[in-house]
Specification:
Elements (H helix, E strand, L loop, with lengths): L12 H4 L2 H15 L6 H17 L6 H25 L22 H19 L4 H20 L6 H10 L2 H10 L6 H24 L1 H7 L4 H5 L3 H22 L4 H20 L5 H28 L2
Length: 311
């Protein structure tokens, strides 16, 4: 009987790899599941929180509250991505853009996603308990909205709007609650919240245009499908509505030229997005989606400069 060559191992390849290598690969998959490799989503959620913190803090938000909100946005965005991928683990393999996600590609098990989601919620709870009771109560509502989004979007014909209600704008009332500590919150809070909700519906509808063909094929609901050939027109209307809501915020706060300049900059960026999506090509829609990072920045810079130079 021939001897087995000592150079050939009968163990599985995964078992042959050093522990450090296998651990690194696992952590990389967890990071991808939390979308740490794609920070654009975190920025899009962070900008409305920063708008609200600067306005509620009259240009000088409490540093501790600011740090908690930044960390909280990062953690909750990661948690939202994890629970979304868990809910869509059997759908994502059929969509070109999402088929390589860790759960869709079966590189992670569903129980690992649930465990990671629980850890992230625990971290978020630890952060929010450093704030006042009203903020904690609003955070509980926000957590429920976050967890419900992946399941509501299966039956709601415009899930991008629900994304704005749950993810995109809920940090606005939380920011005012954290810095003012009173209820009812100022009316300006809800106008700014509406602006953030509309903005999320705008950029996520543009994002949904990338997947429209796949979503139609497998029966997924989205605003891009609902709007059909009127998608660009309705996106344009929503862009005007968002800018008008932000203009109302500025009027109520007696903001001047710096803030208006930020809104003009955002308006010009919206025009650029309309040009990018004119042919509804996936590459152009992706560029338009990413361009919303600059929209959020332009508005924030306008608010920041208003407090720096006009106060």
């Amino acid at each position: 009987m021939a001897a087995v060559s000592p150079e050939i191992s009968l163990a599985p390849k995964s078992a042959q790899a050093p522990f450090g290598y296998r651990l690194g690969r696992r952590l990389t998959e967890y990071a991808r599941l939390m979308r740490f490799d794609r920070p654009i989503g975190t920025w899009l959620l962070l900008w409305p929180a920063l708008w609200a913190l600067w306005i509620a803090g009259r240009g000088r938000p409490n540093p501790q509250v600011l740090i908690i909100f930044v960390l909280g946005v990062v953690v909750m965005r990661a948690a939202g991505c994890v629970i979304n991928d868990f809910a869509d683990r059997n759908i994502d393999p059929h969509v070109r853009r999402t088929r390589d996600r860790p759960l869709a590609a079966r590189r992670l098990d569903p129980y690992e996603a649930l465990a990671l989601f629980a850890v992230l919620l625990g971290i978020a709870l630890l952060l929010v308990t450093r704030l006042n009771r009203l903020t904690v109560e609003l955070a509980a509502v926000g957590a429920f909205l976050t967890m419900s989004y992946p399941f509501v979007k299966r039956v709601f014909p415009m899930p991008q709007l629900y994304l704005g209600i749950s993810f995109g704008g809920w940090s606005v009332p939380m920011a005012f609650a954290a810095l003012t500590g009173r209820w009812p919150l100022p009316r300006i809070t809800w106008v700014l919240y509406i602006a953030a909700v509309i903005w999320a519906a705008i950029y996520d509808t543009i994002y949904a245009m990338i997947d429209r063909e796949d979503d139609l094929r497998i029966g997924i609901k989205s605003s891009a499908i609902l709007f059909a050939d009127l998608d660009r027109l309705i996106i344009g209307v929503m862009q005007i509505m968002m800018l008008y809501a932000l203009w109302l915020v500025g009027e109520a706060l007696h903001f001047g030229g710096w803030y208006r300049g930020g809104l003009i900059g955002a308006g010009l960026l919206f025009l650029w997005q309309q040009w990018l999506i004119r042919k509804r090509e996936p590459a152009g829609c992706l560029r338009a989606f990413v361009n919303n990072q600059s929209v959020g920045l332009a508005i924030f810079v306008g608010i920041l400069l208003e407090y720096v130079y006009a106060s």
